[in-house]
Backbone:
């Protein structure tokens, strides 16, 4: 790999995400009792992660945000286990924005990159174990017996010899006065009480009763509601608007022009929406009036002819391709895809002279704090961010645009303001999963082994918006995730196939459409390309697609095992029912390995694809909550099917044409197949689980379509029209 | 003034006739379990029961809901088979769409206590979940049917 001049730490610094607060990279370090004497003791709080109170409750603070991935259960399981707490006494609190809550893997308090469990696992175990040791000592001192004779069990300390027992609630005030132990031994894995077991999620009862608070559910006394009129085309500016008419609408209090659009503030949402209609804004044509889907596709495919920056150069690809017995070449394309989280973007803020409060469904509380501090013109320590439940995140909610909206309006009106994005705004002003074009040329030797792979990628930059400094030498590694990763990256989002001669080139597209991470980031689109092309190569080599993969993953045990497991469970190699096709795909990202096998039928008359079953095998290393792992892989597969079969953002006249769920189609119940998830037992390094289910699905479907029809489709979504055309042209 | 009967309680709300029922339920009655997803009746997050039928509250002007019996997620009893099945099967992920999904399922089951696959798809194709809980929703429906039958609710 080319020696890239930016290290991970430099990259993180460059992102600017951490400059809002004084950085304590090991914020999870245990605080000594003496260091926190100033705080009134209401219970036993040996660190920032939990507090035991005399009412015998253990309140656990979770730094990550809950967006459906079950983190408000998984992280408490880790603490409760080492602490030897009773699961019934656990309460969960969402941690506020704070540098002390940073995830060590990310060096930030972001819930992204499937990093929560693998980041906090070690620190939380230590925190729980230290608490357990102190409770044991508190009991031993109370009874005047040796600590070795005392044992922690389900929220109590027991002295077996004298059959005495004290609860954590009874011991907490005494434990609070003790010095923190230096190094407490952790439990053996065989002693785990909760870790590794399918614990019921703690947030589900609230979500079933309707009581769970999402961002849109925030309500404050004297709160104003605000909506924005936003430009219909990229770069468009307002020519005129009728402020008086809007202010004349009953309930409307103020019209506020801002760089992102014209805000209408009112006592209720219906008034704000009526006020926005009355504005009757006329916009200019913006910067790219000719932009539509054709323009985008031509631009990205056309740019494949321009020279890019070299990212990886291993061996001599030119020579290898010159000597190859067989060469395969292909061009792939992936369109823009919207996040369309079920809860549209929203934020509530209250800016006063000396304080700013923000309530937000955000994946980046510290980003929110930094941005709010900039907009409010207050130092970060005067900004308080409280995160609500997120109605899905998908990467969209790491972007702070909705926070800017609420803080800027509240700053003007001086009251609490909730900004609500309608679904139309949520789709039109999304930062999409980036469209990309790929061209690959690869060569096989006479035995059908892969000897050379030359790959060019054209994509808009994801990092450009987040941290332009991180795009160095024209290379955006986030756009390349799945093919290549930042040097020293903890995510290992690289191509894993063993290819002796490999060349990767990247060119930044200058399309004006904002892009952002979307569940699995570009691992999704890039795996679609890699795994479809590997399938093409297997067929060119005359080999079984599973065998061909295994042949090029010989030193990768984890990849090997998930492929073999999925194949066995799905009956790979056994005949497929008549009229059906079966496809296989594999990808590893964020430290986890996933293989999937897709069974489907294609209606050759109308091109409709019906997915029957997806079988997945996953190796994510040590397991915390197996049921959550299954749920995350099921969810990953389902949303990946949605993007593989249906999703593509439509553009016209220089802006986004798609607007709502009637013209931006997502997967529905009748299209979701049976999904089987098999967890491969593994003692390897822990990986993430929120995203790795996504990448193998689209290529699995494409490969199954090829298996069923003989038609290779190098572009998603696999709409009936596209499938039909591919069958006709094969 | 609009009069509404929600979860067995009578309310009088000073709001214009054309405001969608959803916003009245959420912002005026402060029953925030019913969610806003699309505003055009496409996604089902706002589903409530009106006179026993699953309806999209975002697409119904509040005036049309006057004099009718409205039930929201908060009004569905905690021991309702669907709510219990949702916990038992761990259906929920982010949970934002689930109040609407639960209202859709409970209306379906009150009409057809043992729905076949077609009936389930007919009802459930009208709601959107972005986390991908569909496979578990199907399991949840099966379990809810069993719970209801065991308890002689059918």
Residues:
């Amino acid at each position: 790999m080319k020696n890239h001049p930016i290290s991970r730490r430099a990259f993180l610094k460059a992102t600017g995400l951490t400059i809002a607060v004084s950085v304590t990279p090991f914020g999870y370090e245990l605080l000594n009792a003496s260091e926190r004497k100033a705080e009134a003791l209401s219970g036993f709080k040996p660190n920032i992660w939990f507090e035991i109170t005399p009412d015998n409750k253990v309140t656990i603070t979770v730094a990550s945000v809950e967006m459906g991935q079950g983190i408000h259960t998984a992280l408490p399981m880790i603490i409760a286990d080492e602490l030897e707490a009773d699961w019934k006494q656990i309460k969960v609190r969402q941690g506020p924005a704070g540098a002390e809550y940073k995830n060590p893997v990310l060096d930030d308090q972001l819930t992204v990159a499937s990093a929560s469990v693998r980041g906090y696992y070690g620190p939380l175990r230590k925190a729980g174990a230290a608490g357990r040791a102190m409770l044991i000592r508190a009991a031993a001192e109370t009874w005047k017996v040796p600590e070795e004779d005392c044992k922690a069990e389900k929220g109590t300390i027991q002295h077996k010899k004298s059959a005495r027992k004290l609860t954590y609630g009874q011991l907490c005030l005494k434990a609070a006065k003790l010095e923190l132990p230096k190094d407490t031994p952790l439990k053996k894995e065989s002693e785990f009480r909760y870790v590794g077991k399918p614990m019921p999620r703690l947030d589900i009862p609230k979500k079933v009763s309707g009581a769970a608070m999402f961002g849109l559910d925030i309500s404050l006394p004297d709160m104003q509601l605000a909506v924005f009129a936003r430009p219909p085309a990229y770069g468009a500016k307002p020519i005129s608007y009728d402020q008086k008419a809007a202010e004349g609408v009953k309930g409307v209090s103020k019209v506020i022009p801002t760089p992102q659009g014209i805000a209408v503030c009112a006592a209720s949402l219906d008034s704000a929406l009526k006020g926005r209609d009355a504005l009757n804004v006329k916009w200019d044509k913006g910067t790219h009036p000719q932009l539509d889907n054709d323009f985008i596709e031509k631009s990205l495919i056309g740019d494949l002819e321009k020279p890019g920056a070299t990212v990886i150069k291993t061996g001599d690809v030119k020579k290898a391709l010159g000597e190859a017995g067989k060469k395969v070449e292909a061009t792939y394309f992936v369109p823009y895809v919207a996040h369309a989280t079920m809860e549209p973007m929203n934020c509530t803020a209250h800016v006063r002279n000396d304080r700013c409060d923000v309530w937000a469904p955000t994946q980046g509380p510290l980003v929110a704090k930094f941005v709010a501090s900039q907009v409010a013109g207050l130092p970060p320590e005067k900004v308080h961010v409280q995160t609500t439940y997120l109605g899905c995140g998908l990467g969209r909610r790491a972007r702070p645009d909705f926070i800017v909206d609420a803080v800027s309006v509240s700053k003007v009106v001086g009251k609490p303001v909730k900004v609500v994005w309608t679904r139309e705004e949520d789709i039109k002003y999304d930062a999409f999963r980036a469209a990309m074009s790929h061209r690959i040329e690869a060569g096989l030797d006479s035995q059908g082994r892969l000897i050379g792979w030359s790959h060019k990628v054209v994509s808009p930059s994801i990092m450009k918006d987040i941290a332009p400094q991180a795009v160095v030498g024209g290379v955006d590694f986030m756009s390349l995730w799945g093919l290549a990763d930042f040097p020293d990256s903890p995510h290992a989002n690289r191509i894993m196939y063993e290819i002796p001669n490999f060349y990767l080139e990247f060119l930044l597209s200058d399309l004006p459409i904002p892009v952002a991470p979307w569940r699995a980031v570009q691992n999704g689109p890039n795996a679609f390309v890699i795994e479809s092309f590997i399938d093409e190569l297997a067929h060119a080599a005359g080999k079984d697609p599973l065998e061909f993969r295994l042949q090029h993953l010989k030193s990768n045990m984890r990849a090997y095992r998930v492929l073999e497991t999925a194949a066995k469970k799905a009956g790979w190699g056994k005949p497929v029912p008549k009229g059906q096709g079966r496809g296989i795909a594999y990808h590893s990202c964020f430290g986890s390995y996933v293989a999937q096998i897709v069974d489907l039928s294609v209606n050759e008359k109308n091109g409709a694809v019906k997915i029957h079953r997806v079988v997945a095998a996953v190796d994510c290393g040590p397991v915390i909550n197996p049921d959550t792992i299954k749920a995350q892989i099921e969810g990953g597969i389902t949303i990946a099917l949605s993007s593989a079969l249906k999703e593509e953002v439509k553009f016209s006249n220089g802006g986004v044409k798609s607007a709502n769920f009637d013209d931006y189609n997502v997967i529905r119940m009748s299209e979701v197949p049976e999904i089987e998830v098999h967890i491969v037992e593994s003692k390897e390094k822990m990986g993430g689980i929120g995203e790795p289910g996504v990448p193998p699905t689209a290529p699995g479907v494409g490969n199954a379509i090829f298996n069923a029809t003989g038609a290779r489709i190098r572009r998603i979504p696999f709409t009936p029209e596209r499938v039909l055309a591919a069958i006709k042209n094969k | 003034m609009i009069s509404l009967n929600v979860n067995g309680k009578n309310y009088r709300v000073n709001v214009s006739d054309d405001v969608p029922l959803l916003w009245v339920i959420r912002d005026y009655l402060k029953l925030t379990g019913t969610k806003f997803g699309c505003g055009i009746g496409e996604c089902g997050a706002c589903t409530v029961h009106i006179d026993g039928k699953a309806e999209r509250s975002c697409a119904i002007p509040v005036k049309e809901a006057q004099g009718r019996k409205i039930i929201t997620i908060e009004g569905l009893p905690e021991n309702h088979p669907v709510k219990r099945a949702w916990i038992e099967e761990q259906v929920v992920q982010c949970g934002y769409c689930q109040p609407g999904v639960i209202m859709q399922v409970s209306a379906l089951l009150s009409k057809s206590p043992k729905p076949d696959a077609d009936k389930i798809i007919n009802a459930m194709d009208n709601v959107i979940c972005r986390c991908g809980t569909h496979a578990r929703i199907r399991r949840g429906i099966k379990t809810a049917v069993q719970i209801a039958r065991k308890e002689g609710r059918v």
